[in-house]
Write a structure and sequence with these properties.
CATH class of the largest domain: Alpha Beta
Helix content: 40-55%
Largest sheet: 7 strands, mixed
CATH architecture of the largest domain: 3-Layer(aba) Sandwich
Shape: globular
Structural class: alpha/beta
Strand content: 15-25%
Radius of gyration: 20 Å
Bound molecules: S-adenosylmethionine
Number of domains: 2
Distance between the termini: 48 Å
CATH superfamily of the largest domain: Vaccinia Virus protein VP39
CATH topology of the largest domain: Rossmann fold
Strand order of the largest sheet: 6-2-1-7-8-10-9
Number of strands: 10
């Protein structure tokens, strides 16, 4: 009898996507949707259906990689990052005469999070007349999402948290959509990266980790404890000492990190790596 793990193995073999670390109830719910959509009665029938319909593999990948995102998701958290975390990063950089700020948006979906960070940092640097360069690496496992991210064109639904001034300064209106300005696009580099890959700690494109801020929001929630540990280990290792980890509203580092991270603010999930 075919089980979920057999479908996961098929996804690894055919497309190289590894969903074995996903929470089982989540996998169940998502696959049920596809069984319903393809009118299959059980996993065995569905497995045979996939073998005969190669396109269905892309449909499974679509339902499993949940790409929901928008600009400045949880606006308060982005306000905190802009007005409390960026100043601390800059202060530390000045002590070492380093004027480059490195950020990783891990699980960036269609780019909204990475661009929001880039815009918030650019606004802060301009407001405070600070002369720093920003390098933002943004990664996801989903190639389709990364293509949209690189295009940088969004419907208004993605932008409801964007303030009018920010919209005017950083977006160009085009055919009922908004395009991220070239200035911001040039600061964000998108690439594919599987957060559960045990062999790599950070995106190859970044050459080395050494990030001042790692944002991994609304990603950990989809994974089981073992996969969460693999991901957390990566996030931890890629950060500089005194670097910041920015998680989603319902995510926390596991107890293993109690002595390695301190919560930086009570208003959102930002943690500072202290050792
Ligand atoms: C709900 S979205 C979160 C997007 C954004 N971080 C936010 O908070 O708005 C989750 C993203 O995680 C990505 N993802 C899922 N599994 C992944 C993996 N193993 N490695 C990297 N990204 C993954 C999905 O493709 C999806 O784009």
């Amino acid at each position: 009898m075919i089980q979920i793990i057999d479908i996961c193995k098929l996804l690894i073999e055919t497309r190289g996507y590894d969903f074995t670390g996903y929470r089982e109830p989540m996998l169940n719910r998502r696959l049920e949707k596809r069984l319903f959509a393809t009118k299959q009665n059980n996993l065995t029938d569905y497995y045979n259906y996939i073998l005969q319909n190669d396109d269905e593999i892309d449909n499974i990948i679509d339902v499993l990689t949940i790409n929901v995102s928008h600009f400045f998701r949880n606006p308060l958290a982005f306000e905190v990052v802009k007005n409390e975390i960026f100043p601390k990063i800059i202060l530390k950089k000045k002590e070492t005469s380093n004027n480059i700020i490195r950020i990783w948006s891990a699980g960036c979906s269609e780019g909204q999070e990475a661009y929001s960070l880039s815009i918030a940092l650019d606004e802060y640097l301009k407001e405070e007349k600070q002369n720093f360069e920003q390098f933002i690496f943004a990664t996801d496992i989903d190639k389709k999402a990364l293509k949209k991210a690189s295009d940088g064109i969004y419907k208004t639904q993605s932008l409801y948290n964007v303030k009018l001034g920010t919209l005017k300064n950083y977006f160009i209106e085009e055919d009922n959509c908004y395009k991220v300005s070239n200035e911001i696009k040039s600061q964000v580099k998108f690439s594919i990266f599987d957060l559960t890959d045990k062999n790599r700690n950070y995106p190859v494109e970044s050459i080395y980790g050494g990030f001042d801020l790692v944002s991994c929001r609304n990603v950990l929630i989809y994974f089981n404890i073992n996969a969460q540990e693999v991901i957390m280990n990566k996030l931890y290792n890629s950060l500089n000492i005194d670097g910041y980890l920015f998680l989603g509203e319902s995510e926390v580092p596991s107890s293993k990190y109690n002595l390695k991270f301190v919560k930086e603010t009570s208003s959102c999930k930002v943690y500072k790596k202290i050792r």
